[in-house]
Amino acid sequence: MSEVAEPIYFPPVTAAMEGGLLRVGGRLTPDWLLTAYERGIFPWPVIEDDWEILAWFSPDPRAVIELDGLHVSRRLARRIRSQRFEVTMNHDFSGVVAGCSEPRRDDSGTWITPAICAAYRQLHELGHAHSIEVWCQGALVGGLYGVALGGMFAGESMFFRMRDASKIAMFFLLEHLRQRGFTLFDIQQQTPHAERMGAVEISRSQFLSRLHCALALPVTFGERLQGDCPSLG
């Protein structure tokens, strides 16, 4: 007997609980994931010891980084100009996801489970998920990955093995998104680190309005980074 696929269902985002929890269960398949992103929803597994359950969130407020809003310190600008680092796009998606899944220095664990890794690798193979890699002397030292739909990019996670490597990835990504015609960079939830980088919070209704407009844009992520060294003004 063939397995019957669970139909895709998400409640209205206004039904989300405090903290943004909208529903539990479902599947980490491309159709579920893409439907979620189109509605301003994202997956975030809830993990406790050996217990894990798939959960979906749509928080209010929502955190974004405006495409011209990244804070670039003098130190970071010097590192970008130094030409010490090489930055690539979609060169090692699996390596970036693996880097993002490594334990954090604060020992807070990771939500990037093997199932999440496999799901986003599949999205990458279908052309929806993308990575930015930062290299130093041939070694992968930082990067980030996320999902592009229309003129919206949803940043999922980033990592670094050398100081500022993830910020360099972010700098090049935002320059790339501007040049490709994107209008919305979603980072989902505010953190102190993201706030220092320039992230701001907007209401969920404002986010959904901007998402609707961004999804309608006839733009694509492209196949290579736009420009070798973006302007630092």
Can you offer a commentary on this structure?
- This protein has 2 domains: 13-57, no CATH class; 62-215, Leucyl/phenylalanyl-tRNA-protein transferase, C-terminal domain (Aminopeptidase), CATH 3.40.630.
- It is 30% helix and 25% strand.
- It has helices at 30-38, 74-81, 93-100, 114-125, 165-180, 192-197, 204-215, and strands at residues 21-24, 42-43, 46-48, 51-53, 55-57, 62-64, 86-89, 129-136, 139-149, 152-160, 184-188, 200-202.
- A hairpin with a 2-residue loop joins β9 and β10 (152-160).
- The mean pLDDT is 92.
By secondary-structure content and strand pairing, the structural class works out as alpha+beta
Distance between the termini: 62 Å
Give the strand line-up of the largest sheet.
7-8-9-10-11-6-12
CATH level 1 name of the largest domain: Alpha Beta
- Biggest β-sheet description: 7 strands, mixed
The oligomeric status of these chains comes to single chain
Q: What percent strand?
A: 15-25%
Give the full name of the CATH homologous superfamily of the largest domain: Leucyl/phenylalanyl-tRNA-protein transferase, C-terminal domain
Q: Mind telling me which CATH architecture of the largest domain this is?
A: 3-Layer(aba) Sandwich
Q: What is the averaged pLDDT score?
A: 92
Give the helix/strand layout.
Layout: E1 21-24, H1 30-38, E2 42-43, E3 46-48, E4 51-53, E5 55-57, E6 62-64, H2 74-81, E7 86-89, H3 93-100, H4 114-125, E8 129-136, E9 139-149, E10 152-160, H5 165-180, E11 184-188, H6 192-197, E12 200-202, H7 204-215
Parallel strand pairs: 10-11
Antiparallel strand pairs: 1-5, 2-5, 3-4, 6-11, 6-12, 7-8, 8-9, 9-10
